[in-house]
């Protein structure tokens, strides 16, 4: 397959004014008539019209009214070229597609009998031939025709301008989108759906119609999405002065969907997982995710749709920015400072768990990549989450007000345009009269920078010298890196744990107490704080002010001190994680040593004999019992770094040793904190009707983490707590937590509990997904468990949510079982990747990434992983998607 390079970007030869489309919707063969009014682009040299089309039957092609004969155009692969075309060209194209055979879920497809589209990134070309690239923006008018009984609802972008009946029981609807848009934002939906709708008054006084469309029977699950939409609309006005520009805004839920959701103009299409919720079927996390994703897609209306990307290398221009916006939205919805901090910690956990490994592996790429084979492989945590961190750094450097000025200038300059990440950076720089030249490296250099910090206190001179040194590891295609522009937020704590005044040498004026943002721009820099009256404990990278790995030599005592006192909640949490990580790594090494000396059976005894760890338990107890702390924060503090996170800290990954070590630490903490955990469990029951608000969710989270620790002890009291909770719970959060605790214990009656759960929720697909995940990630699950679940009548690879619930959950969420020494996990993985490759390349390529880090594992596992990768690489009919992933992994 061919590699596409950013440096080869060329403006399109022709631009498009208007697009008129007519659809005759039939599952087996849908006829599409398209009329494109084009004109030669003065900014381009070429005179050929270049269109893309995939898996289409071309029925007719006319240029300015004249039918084109075979010799008048060239069709090579997916590219249709009309050479030396006139300056103004009206193209009429008739194509036929086969939605019912479309298992890739790109372009026009059928899900549960209804029609849906997904066009980003390059799905529009599966509907018609078109200059399907984001820098071609046009106005669309769409006529939908279909059987009225089967498809009573016909939706597309923009406003409904006409509808009526046709002969033979058919009907039509005509939609007009008043805004120019790139083809990737086109959408249609046709089917038997119902909606919850509301008229909503904007701040400006204009009234808009909001609708959430679902299948009949799901109307009891739309309220939260509707509330989230209204909150999003209000928030974007308050925070960024951005108002909804349409009279009508629709969200539609679909059960078969490759990703989370899609921001089609005025017609957002969502995975049911991010729309449907009520206390019976959705967890607190589901409720929070729905709010975030509804917000995310809505915010795209400005950041992505009104201002879009010039080319797909600029994807983070809209995604990084929009993730940043949804993160801020969710934080503001919680409203409290501690809530904001909890949200920040959650986001950083995702970054570390998923993006740091990506940045250190074979698929590492800059936030603005230089090349790709398949663009769908670049909807990554780097583009999204690291991209959001990059946007956040502007705000950290410029302040909230300065950031807002930059946003205002960005829209003033670029509304209605397709632009680049450089344009965004220029708006931030110009609006604030700042030089952000060096900041560009966050877009062009891949890899996670490391910052080494060391402090030296001069008691005589009352000076604290803080030296920061940055490096960045080599990544594919990038051996040497230049220094980044890194905002490092720091504070200094006195012996009582209070923030000290901060004044850098040579500065005049009042001292700022609290936090200050240092700008690290060189490879090594020393910052000298003056008037520091006692030796402080520095708190560095507060709020995680940059996406870097911070190395500091803290003693255990200093970490415990920061855990107890830091005014910055992020670093307070971070100190606890550092302390826990230290223990976990020591324990892992001890497990390996014990194994080597033949003590396989006596690992526990060996671990019990290594220095007994009171410090961590004491620090966690203090946090657990500190009623002044937000329960949600205490839950995060009590949660140990995941096995994946521990793995990333090791030179050579030994998943089994990690698992044993972490389990050991969980058990010993449970023993040490038993009474406190029981007390926390009891104190944090939430009485009364269920509400997903952050405060209640935080209490449930703390209660349930306490339960999961207690269940490690396998004693009668803990198990009966879980059993009671399973029986009495009035919501899915508590149900699942209880069931997980039981499954991971030695309690009897597990299979009855699972069966009962299944029977109760058989008709709720999203809950059955949870049922599969629960079993795939259970502690005693192995590849045979998963194989037999894959044979369950409710399992199908064709539905992405279901495939993810079982296969992905096992391969990515149960490391010690997946990496079984016999390599059976890897053979299973290879089979599934190959099976998915045939039906849905995008989802297959996601699964293919589970072996990204194979070179970091123990030699025995490495070899087995390499064989599995090769098996996939050499299988026939490999999609571009999967091929790119495994080729890069093996390179
Ligand atoms: N923009 C879409 C993602 C499309 C993915 C295409 N493979 C969802 C989002 O980020 O909002
Ligand atoms: Zn997005």
TrEMBL record:
Domain Peptidase M1 membrane alanine aminopeptidase: start-end pairs: 225-442
Where's the Peptidase M1 alanyl aminopeptidase Ig-like fold domain? 447-552
Q: Which NCBIfam families match?
A: pepN_proteo
Alphabetically, the GO molecular function entries are: alanyl aminopeptidase activity
Which source organism? Answer: Herbaspirillum chlorophenolicum
Top EC group: hydrolase
Record-linked InterPro entries: Aminopeptidase_N-like_N (IPR045357), Aminopeptidase_N-like_N_sf (IPR042097), PepN_Ig-like_sf (IPR038438), Peptidase_M1 (IPR001930), Peptidase_M1_dom (IPR014782), Peptidase_M1_pepN (IPR012779), Peptidase_M1_pepN_C (IPR024601), Peptidase_M1_pepN_C_sf (IPR037144)
Instruction: Give start and end of each Aminopeptidase N-like N-terminal domain.
Output: 85-185
UniProt cross-references to PANTHER family, sorted A to Z: PUROMYCIN-SENSITIVE AMINOPEPTIDASE (PTHR46322)
The reaction(s) annotated as catalysed by this protein in its Swiss-Prot or TrEMBL entry are:
Release of an N-terminal amino acid, Xaa-|-Yaa- from a peptide, amide or arylamide. Xaa is preferably Ala, but may be most amino acids including Pro (slow action). When a terminal hydrophobic residue is followed by a prolyl residue, the two may be released as an intact Xaa-Pro dipeptide
The cofactors named for this UniProt entry are: Zn(2+)
Q: Its Enzyme Commission number?
A: 3.4.11.2
Q: To which protein family does this belong?
A: Belongs to the peptidase M1 family.
Residues covered by the Peptidase M1 alanyl aminopeptidase C-terminal domain = 556-891
Q: What is the name listed in the Swiss-Prot or TrEMBL entry for this protein? A: Aminopeptidase N
Lineage of the species this protein comes from? Bacteria, Pseudomonadati, Pseudomonadota, Betaproteobacteria, Burkholderiales
Q: Which keywords does UniProt give here?
A: Aminopeptidase, Hydrolase, Metal-binding, Metalloprotease, Protease, Zinc
């Amino acid at each position: 397959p061919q590699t596409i390079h950013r440096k080869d970007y060329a403006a399109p030869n022709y631009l498009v004014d208007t697009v008129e489309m007519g659809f005759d919707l039939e599952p087996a063969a849908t006829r599409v008539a398209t009329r494109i009014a084009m004109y030669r682009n003065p900014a381009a040299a070429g005179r050929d019209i270049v269109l893309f089309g995939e898996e289409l039957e071309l029925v007719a092609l006319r240029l300015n009214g004249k039918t084109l004969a075979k010799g008048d155009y060239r069709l090579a692969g997916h590219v249709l070229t009309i050479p030396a075309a006139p300056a103004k060209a009206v193209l009429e194209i008739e194509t036929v597609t086969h939605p019912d055979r479309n298992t890739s879920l790109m372009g026009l497809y059928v899900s549960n009998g209804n029609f849906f589209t997904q066009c980003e990134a390059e799905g529009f070309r599966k509907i018609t031939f078109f200059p399907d690239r984001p820098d071609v923006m046009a106005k669309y008018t769409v006529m939908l025709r279909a059987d009225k009984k089967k498809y009573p609802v016909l939706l597309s972008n923009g406003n409904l301008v006409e509808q009526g009946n046709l002969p033979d029981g058919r009907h039509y609807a005509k939609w007009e989108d008043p805004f120019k848009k790139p083809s990737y934002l086109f959408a249609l939906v046709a089917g038997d759906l119902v909606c919850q709708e509301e008229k909503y008054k904007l701040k400006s006084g204009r009234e808009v119609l909001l609708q959430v469309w679902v299948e009949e029977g799901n109307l009891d699950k739309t309220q939260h999405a509707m509330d989230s939409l209204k909150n999003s609309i209000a928030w974007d006005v308050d925070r960024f002065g951005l108002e909804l520009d349409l009279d009508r805004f629709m969200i539609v839920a679909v059960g078969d969907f490759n990703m989370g959701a899609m921001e089609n103009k005025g017609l957002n299409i969502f995975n049911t997982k991010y729309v449907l919720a009520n206390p019976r079927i959705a967890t607190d996390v589901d409720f929070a995710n729905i709010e975030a994703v509804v917000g995310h897609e809505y915010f795209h209306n400005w950041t992505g749709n009104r201002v879009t990307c010039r080319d797909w290398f600029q994807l983070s221009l809209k995604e990084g920015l929009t993730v940043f916006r949804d993160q801020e939205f969710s934080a503001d919805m919680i409203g409290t400072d501690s809530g904001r901090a909890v949200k920040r910690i959650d986001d950083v956990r995702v970054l570390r768990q998923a993006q740091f490994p990506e940045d250190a592996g074979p698929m590492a790429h800059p936030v603005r990549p230089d090349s790709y084979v398949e663009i769908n492989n670049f909807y990554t945590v780097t583009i999204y989450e690291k991209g959001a961190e990059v946007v956040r750094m502007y705000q950290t450097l410029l302040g909230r007000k300065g950031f807002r000025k930059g946003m205002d200038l960005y829209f003033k300059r670029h509304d209605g345009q397709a632009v680049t990440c450089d344009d965004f950076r220029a708006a931030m720089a110009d609006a604030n009269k700042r030089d952000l030249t060096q900041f560009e490296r966050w877009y062009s250099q891949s890899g996670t920078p490391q910052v080494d910090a060391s402090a030296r206190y001069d008691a005589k001179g009352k000076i604290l010298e803080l030296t920061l040194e940055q490096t960045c590891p080599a990544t594919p295609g990038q051996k040497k890196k230049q220094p980044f522009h890194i905002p490092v937020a720091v504070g200094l704590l006195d012996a009582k744990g209070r923030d000290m005044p901060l004044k850098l040498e040579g500065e005049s004026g009042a001292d700022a107490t609290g936090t200050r943002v240092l700008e690290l721009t060189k490879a090594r820099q020393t910052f000298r704080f003056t008037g520091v009256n006692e030796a402080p404990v520095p708190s560095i990278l507060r709020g995680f002010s940059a996406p870097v790995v911070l190395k500091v030599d803290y003693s255990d005592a200093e970490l415990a001190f920061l855990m107890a006192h830091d005014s910055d909640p992020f670093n307070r949490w971070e100190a606890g994680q550092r302390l826990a990580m230290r223990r976990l790594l020591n324990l892992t090494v001890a497990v390996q040593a014990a194994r080597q000396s033949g003590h396989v059976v006596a690992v526990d005894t060996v671990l019990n004999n290594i220095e007994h760890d009171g410090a961590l338990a004491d620090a966690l107890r203090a946090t657990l019992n500190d009623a002044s702390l937000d329960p949600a924060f205490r839950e995060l503090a009590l949660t140990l770094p995941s096995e994946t996170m521990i793995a990333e800290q090791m030179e050579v990954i030994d998943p089994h040793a990690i698992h044993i070590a972490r389990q050991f630490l969980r058990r010993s903490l449970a023993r040490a904190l038993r009474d406190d955990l029981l007390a926390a469990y009891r104190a944090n029951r939430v009485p009364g009707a269920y509400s997903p608000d952050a405060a209640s969710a935080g209490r449930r989270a703390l209660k349930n983490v306490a339960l999961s620790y207690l269940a490690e002890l396998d004693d009668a009291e803990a198990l009966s707590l879980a059993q009671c909770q399973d029986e009495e719970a009035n919501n899915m959060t508590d149900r699942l937590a209880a069931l997980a605790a039981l499954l991971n214990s030695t309690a009897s009656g597990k299979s009855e509990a699972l069966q009962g759960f299944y029977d109760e929720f058989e008709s709720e697909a999203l809950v059955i997904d949870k049922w599969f995940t629960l079993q795939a990630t259970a502690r005693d699950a192995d590849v045979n468990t998963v194989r037999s679940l894959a044979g369950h009548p409710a399992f199908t690879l064709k539905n992405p949510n279901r495939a993810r619930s079982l296969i992905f959950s096992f391969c990515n969420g149960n490391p010690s079982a997946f990496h079984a020494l016999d390599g059976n996990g890897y053979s299973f993985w290879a089979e599934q990747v190959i099976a998915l490759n045939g039906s849905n390349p995008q989802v297959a390529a996601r699964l293919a990434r589970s072996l990204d880090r194979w070179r970091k594992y123990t030699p025995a596992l490495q070899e087995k992983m390499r064989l599995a990768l090769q098996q996939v690489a050499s299988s026939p009919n490999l999609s571009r998607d999967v091929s790119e992933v495994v080729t890069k992994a093996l390179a």
